[in-house]
Write a structure and sequence with these properties.
The structure holds 2 protein chains of 2 kinds. Chain A is an alpha+beta fold. Chain A is about 60% helix and about 15% strand. Chain A is built from 4 helices and 3 strands. In chain A, strands 1-3-2 form a 3-stranded antiparallel beta sheet. In chain A, helix 1 packs across helix 4 (about 80-110). By secondary structure, chain B is of the alpha+beta class. Chain B folds into 5 domains: about 5-75, no CATH class; about 80-130 and about 345-480, no CATH class; about 145-330, no CATH class; about 485-530 and about 760-890, no CATH class; about 545-740, no CATH class. Helix content of chain B is about 50%, strand content about 15%. Chain B has 28 helices and 22 strands. In chain B, the strands form 3 sheets. Chain B has a 6-stranded mixed β-barrel. A 6-stranded mixed barrel of chain B has the order 14-15-20-17-19-18. A 4-stranded antiparallel beta sheet of chain B has the order 13-21-12-22. In chain B, strand 3 (about 165-180) and strand 4 form a beta hairpin. Chain B is elongated. The chains are: A alpha+beta, B alpha+beta.
């Protein structure tokens, strides 16, 4: 009963942080935005989104607040904390380094 | 990798802990919100409400599991988990009160037994003695070529004290029998004369007044005594104003200066009074060969026992060279921690008991593991459903562990309560000379031990079934009958292994018990050398002031014998200096006239006893040759002795020893020349298990003045009666009082009681091991029964088919029984192998049997296998009655 491999482990956290860096959002909106930005390449099921959100919240990267939506329903809005902001920079830098390295390796093989 | 700012999230976690319901509602609301929006979107795309709802649920890919994962993110909170698991476990346990009670009781008894025995081990063997610098206190046994426990003479002691550089201080004491007269009843007490530095060296503070001080040990100092706490309470009612009172001891006034604390246990609890040993004026001082001092010492800081040992050897060597005559037989003294000397024989006994009771607990746990295993099989479906709903395996295991820990800790708590009572029982059942009894108490060491044992026990028997749920196949379990063949085989194998272990362990315990029983039976068959039935003994001492001449003593003895003989029911009366089996030791060197030994070290020695006429007849000791002493053997006639068979056989193996002459040194430095007039049977002086000890008897009438002091200090009256001797104790005592009111009688014991006392430690040990072994046997049989019974239930269908196909009842019976026998045989094989390697550790406790006695091994193995067979027979019978139609329909 292992969970489906939605995205590369750890990448989901980065995506969520990046999306939340723009503006506070509730879970559904995040899922919509994820689908928009990554299209069909990254299959993120809504199922794995919430555990990731809750984990980030527990670890203090993001914080949550209940607010009214545009249609006046209560929803849990997540926003980046200061710690999360710094973490995002570091994670993004890490990702860049990693992906550059991997791209490099892959190209090497093709030569 | 992540820099978790845990302190930022504390409020969040606390919220998760204390507002659980709220947080849970929020979780549901969040998911519901998402679901609603998703449904709206699908409806906008043209789905029907039902389709939209289904599709939305699909996007979650298992909504309940996702919720569980979300919950898991805040479950880093151990406390919350714990509370939940505990609550859940309690509910589960309360639902099965039968199982819970059985488990808690088993554990309570098991842990209680272990706690009780460990309390004894901790208080008696592990805890330091209640003295300052306890870790530096050592006992020093002098040793001789012919004995490994000997004493020091005053001069040797003083020289050793002067020469030592490794000992900070050294103290000595001698036994001292005291008659208390004057105020109150005349009473005889066991006391010690102890070097006046001893109490300061031990660092003991008085409960009242002061201890003896070095200044009390000078000849000019006034005569003072300190009382034991027990004596103070018993004789003086705990009077706080007792200090300064005078006490008449052996006719001499002593001033009471202090009361010892209650825990003071040196050398044993029977000693009730102590006065300073004044070396300068002691009558034994001039005689370097008169060894009667027991010694203990305080090592200098940083000095090891080995260093002190080496120095003591050198000093002894020097003293032997300087005084070759008196010290010819002395060998290097033996130094051991004071605690080891105090606890003595009880070390082996207590450790054996702890081992035995631990085995019982392990067997009990094995049974519980088996029960839990069966229960966990029954709960497979439940586990499968929970796994399907997102429960992880770790969570399930943790939950089962919580339940078993809950059981074991409850059992542990019950155990502590039982142990408090068990310890009292152990002390009450224990032999009178059990060491350090006042110190035995539950302390935090014991509680820590109990908690550790409980947790270990709970962990072990909880983990076994928990790990069994490992290969749970959810689909299989939910789909079908829940009969996963592979798992079922594995479960059976684990249960079989457990039962094999149980049989093996209980066999070890049963064999140990069997060996002890055999030892005891053999020991009981040993003849003590005296006829113990209807024989009364009484110790008394005569005040030295009145009985300073052998003649006055002889007169007293004659008159006393006449008076006591007149009491109705008395058959014969006599007196002896030391009774058989009393454990007292008085020895003397001797040489055979005309056969001088080559060197001083080869001078033979024998136990010497002073007796009155009629002693052998009264004691029932057979006279093999020659004659007994009569009234004609007096101080003015030829000194005579009767030797025992052991002495006769040793030195006159093929000759008649009668008429031979010995030179015995039993009275100071001079030797007495005595003639052998008779040979008597051997008697046991210390224990039934001792080899025959060479002994000679001399008539009291011929006691030289130099030995008179020892003799009148401790005399035993022996009275042979027609019937039960105890009712005659009072009439006898009245006769003694009527003859001389300053003579006190003590230790009124029948010879049977004395015999029983000498085997009391063995009896105690045997009783406890028997109880533990019986418990082990019952538990193992129960375990065997439950495994076979379960296996029959599980295979009802198979058995049904076999019966339907024509298998006879005998065939079914045979099949089930053979299953049990195979298990029992495996267990026995393992148990015998284990017993072989374990029982040799108890060789000290055995008598007349080897630790691998084949008879014991075989008979115990047979007993166990037949008992397990009976246990298997019940379920096997049930198997033959399986109704094939019902069995096949049931599933």
């Amino acid at each position: 009963m292992s969970k489906p491999k939605d995205v590369v482990q750890g990448t989901l956290d980065l995506l969520i942080l990046k999306i939340l860096a723009l503006e506070p959002m509730h879970g559904w909106a995040i899922s919509q935005r994820l689908r928009q930005v990554s299209g069909d390449v990254l299959q993120v099921s809504d199922g794995s989104l919430y555990p990731a959100l809750h984990k980030l919240e527990q670890e203090g990267w993001i914080k949550a607040e209940w607010k009214a939506t545009e249609n006046n329903r209560r929803a849990k809005f997540y926003e980046l904390t200061r710690v999360g902001g710094k973490g995002l920079e570091k994670e993004a830098a890490n990702w860049n380094r990693l992906s550059t390295a991997i791209t490099h390796v892959v190209k090497l093989k093709e030569v | 990798m992540r820099p978790v700012r845990w302190f930022c999230t504390i409020p969040l976690r606390l919220r998760g802990l204390f507002r659980r319901a709220h947080v849970e509602r929020e979780l549901l609301e969040e998911f519901q919100f998402h679901l609603d929006r998703q449904i709206e979107e699908y409806i906008a795309k043209g789905f029907t409400a039902e389709e939209a709802r289904y599709a939305a649920m699909q996007t979650f890919n298992g909504m309940e599991q996702r919720k569980e994962e979300c919950r898991d993110t805040r479950r880093i909170n151990l406390i919350e988990d714990l509370i939940r698991d505990v609550r859940y476990s309690i509910r589960g346990l309360l639902k099965n009160p039968g199982f819970t009670c059985a488990a808690v009781l088993t554990l309570g008894l098991g842990i209680g037994g272990n706690t009780a025995v460990f309390t004894m081990v901790n208080s008696v063997l592990l805890r330091q003695l209640p003295f300052k610098n306890a870790e530096r206190l050592v006992w020093i046994w002098s040793t001789r070529t012919d004995r490994d426990k000997a004493f020091f003479s005053i001069l040797n002691f003083i020289d050793t004290r002067q020469r030592t550089r490794t000992l900070e201080d050294i103290a000595a004491f001698a036994n001292w029998g005291v008659n208390v007269t004057g105020e109150g009843d005349a009473e005889r007490l066991a006391g010690v004369r102890i070097s006046a530095n001893a109490f300061q060296m031990l660092g003991v503070d008085a409960a009242l007044g002061r201890m003896l001080l070095p200044s009390d040990g000078t000849p000019a100092a006034p005569q003072v005594v300190v009382l034991s706490n027990g004596l103070w309470r018993r004789r003086f009612g705990g009077d706080p104003h007792i200090l300064g009172h005078s006490l008449l001891l052996n006719g001499i006034p002593y001033t009471i200066v202090g009361v010892l604390p209650a825990q003071f246990v040196l050398p044993n609890a029977e000693v009730e009074i102590a006065s300073p040993l004044i070396f300068e004026t002691d009558s034994q001082r001039p005689n370097r060969g008169s060894n009667f001092l027991r010694t203990f010492a305080l090592l200098k800081p940083g000095v090891t026992a080995q260093q002190a040992q080496a120095e003591m050897s050198a000093i002894t060597e020097g003293l032997r060279a300087e005084y070759p005559e008196e010290n010819a037989k002395h060998t290097a003294p033996r130094i051991l921690p004071l605690r080891d000397e105090v606890t003595g024989n009880y070390r082996a006994l207590l450790w054996t008991l702890l081992g035995a009771v631990a085995i019982v607990l392990v067997i009990g746990c094995t049974n519980l593991a088996n029960m839990l295993l069966v229960r966990s099989v029954a709960r497979r479906k439940d586990f499968a459903i929970r796994t399907a709903l997102g429960g992880t395996r770790v969570r399930l295991i943790r939950e089962m562990l919580t339940a078993s820990l809950l059981l074991s800790l409850t059992g542990g708590a019950l155990g502590v309560l039982l142990a408090r009572w068990g310890v009292q029982l152990l002390i009450a059942a224990g032999p009178a000379d059990f060491p350090r009894v006042p110190e035995i108490a539950l302390d935090w060491h014991v509680l820590a031990f109990t908690v550790c044992v409980s947790v270990a026990v709970g962990g072990i028997f909880g983990l076994t079934p928990a790990l069994q749920t490992g290969g749970l196949d959810v689909n299989e379990e939910l789909k079908g009958s829940g009969k996963n063949v592979q798992d079922s085989v594995r479960g059976t194998r684990t249960r079989s292994l457990l039962v094999v272990a149980e049989v093996a362990l209980s066999l070890v315990l049963l064999i140990s018990a069997g060996l002890l029983v055999r030892s005891f039976v053999k020991l009981q068959a040993v003849a003590p050398g005296v006829d113990t039935r209807n024989l009364l003994s009484m110790r008394m001492s005569l005040p030295a002031a009145k009985y300073s001449q052998p003649e006055t003593m002889s007169t007293f003895v004659d008159r006393l014998v006449d008076r006591v003989r007149g009491i109705p029911g008395v058959r014969s009366v006599s007196l002896g200096s030391v009774l058989p089996l009393s454990g007292m030791n008085t020895r003397a060197d001797f040489t055979i006239m005309g056969r001088p030994p080559a060197t001083q070290a080869e001078v033979p020695a024998a136990q010497n006893r002073w007796i009155a006429p009629g002693y052998f007849r009264t004691m029932g000791v057979p006279l093999i040759r020659g004659r007994e002493f009569t009234e004609l053997d007096t101080g003015r006639s030829q000194p005579v002795v009767v030797i025992d068979d052991a002495l006769a056989r040793r030195y006159w193996p093929n000759e008649n020893p009668i008429g031979q002459h010995l030179a015995v040194s039993d009275a100071g430095p001079e030797r007495r020349e005595v003639e052998i007039v008779g040979v008597a049977g051997n008697v046991k002086h210390f224990n039934l298990d001792e080899p025959p000890t060479a002994t000679y008897y001399s008539p009291m009438t011929q006691v030289p003045e130099a030995a008179l002091g020892f003799l009148i200090n401790g005399l035993s009256l022996v009275v042979r009666t027609d019937t039960d001797p105890l009712p005659l104790a009072d009439p006898v005592r009245r006769q003694i009082q009527a003859l001389d009111k300053d003579v006190a009688a003590s230790s009124v014991l029948t010879m049977d009681q004395l015999l029983a006392t000498s085997v009391a430690p063995r009896r105690f040990n045997l009783l406890l091991i028997e109880i533990f072994a019986a418990a082990a046997l019952v538990l193992a049989v129960m375990g065997m029964y439950s495994v076979i019974a379960y296996s029959v239930t599980e295979r009802k269908r198979e058995i049904g088919i076999r019966i339907a196909l024509g298998a006879s009842a005998t065939a079914v019976l045979k099949q089930v029984l053979s299953e049990g026998i195979v298990l029992a045989l495996f267990g026995e094989a393992a148990g015998i192998a284990a017993a072989f390697s374990v029982t040799r550790f108890m060789s000290d406790l055995l008598y007349g049997v080897t630790p691998t006695d084949p008879f014991t091994f075989a008979s115990v193995a047979l007993l166990l296998i037949s008992t397990t067979l009976i246990a298997c027979y019940i379920p096997a019978r049930r198997a033959t009655r399986v109704d094939p139609v019902q069995a096949l329909r049931a599933e």
